[in-house]
Amino acid sequence: MNSDERMNAETRRRREECQKRILSMSSLRLCVSVFIMFFCLASAASSAIAADPPADLLSPRLDPAIARGLAFLAQQQKPSGVIEGGGPTTAMTGLSLMSFLSAGAAPGQGKFGGNVTSAVDYLIAKAPADGYFGNTDGSRMYGHGIVTLALAEAYGVETGKERRAKLRAVLDRAVKVILDAQQVRKDSNNAGGWRYERESGDSDLSLSGWCALALRASSDAGVNVPKDRVKRAVDYVLRCYRPEEKGFCYQPGNGATLPMTGVGVLNLYLLDAADRPEAIAGAKLLSEKFINASTDYPYYTYYYTTQAAYQAGESVWPTVWKVNQDQLLDQQQPDGGWPQSRQGQEPGRVYSTAMSVLTLTVPYRLLPIYQR
């Protein structure tokens, strides 16, 4: 057995241990300890693994809530592998796939291993020849960024040679779509970002955030992402910063908002610009303003502010995590899913449940994109 085979075998063993602990609702602290060893062995995205989160930050309701959320998503999956329940089907399948992966599931392994395999196979089958997923369900570049991110995370845990090769070919084409769309000629305010159409002449931070996450995850998975493209994305994020409000906005010149500040901070951390003063100021804002009944796109906001707070570290993380965790746990429904977005701006219960699970599994740190 060569070194790669030994690493894959050990990786599978560690992941199975962690998954059993999560899905049996046992101690999350034990799971995270196993996870830390797993990523040290698997050479994940970052060599700087954070310390085990203090037990008093993790509600005893957390593990059971995540297990019920995953069960709800599994119930929405059709024999084809698609996961339906409102919203663009390909994008919703991508979000749900990441939810399973974020809780320790892997292709063919564990309680939800079959769901992972089916979702991956569905996305591979839906992949167009030109690599653009946005036309498969009408989700345009928004859905394309989400699906590319999901495929990159799935590629890291796929061990079957044939399926791994298929997945890599689809991922390569999907990344090329993102890189090509970034090259569209735009004015100085919009250069480096992405918008709803591949050929759009402007950009927005929300869509650019998904595309940037997809590029980071793909790079971690071994896909070539030129450094100059990362720099261009960082430059666009910085143009969305509002110094007078110490936060980030949807498009340059707009007012700063909580969700966009989460996107901006997270992107600067993951694109290796964490030392920028804009990232530091934005992170401070996250610890002072929280989601409430008037917050637009609440599930999206939970997802991005929680990840950004985790990246920002101990000065921000405990406060943001406690608020977001408690709110989400209180909102979970008896069937395991989360309700439709209260303002109707977010599509259906698959979206709300997948985004909630992805938020609540941030301290598990099983997705490479969740690494510091």
3D structure, described in words:
This protein has 372 residues and is mostly helical. 57% of the residues lie in helices and 1% in strands. The protein contains 14 helices and two strands; from the N terminus they run αααααααααββααααα. Strands 1-2 form a two-stranded antiparallel sheet. It starts with a helix and ends in a 12-residue tail after the last helix.
Short description:
The chain has helices at residues 3-23, 28-42, 62-75, 89-102, 113-126, 140-155, 161-182, 205-220, 227-239, 258-270, 277-286, 298-312, 317-331, 348-360; strands at residues 241-242, 247-248. The protein is mainly α and 372 residues long.
Radius of gyration, taken over Cα atoms and rounded to an integer in Å: 19 Å
Q: Structural class of the helix and strand makeup?
A: mainly alpha
- Summarize the biggest pleated sheet: 2 strands, antiparallel
Distance between the termini: 31 Å
**Assembly state (oligomeric):** single chain
Count the E strands.
Answer: 2
Keywords:
14 helices, globular, two-stranded antiparallel sheet, 372 residues, mainly alpha
Topology at a glance:
Elements: H1 3-23, H2 28-42, H3 62-75, H4 89-102, H5 113-126, H6 140-155, H7 161-182, H8 205-220, H9 227-239, E1 241-242, E2 247-248, H10 258-270, H11 277-286, H12 298-312, H13 317-331, H14 348-360
Antiparallel strand pairs: 1-2
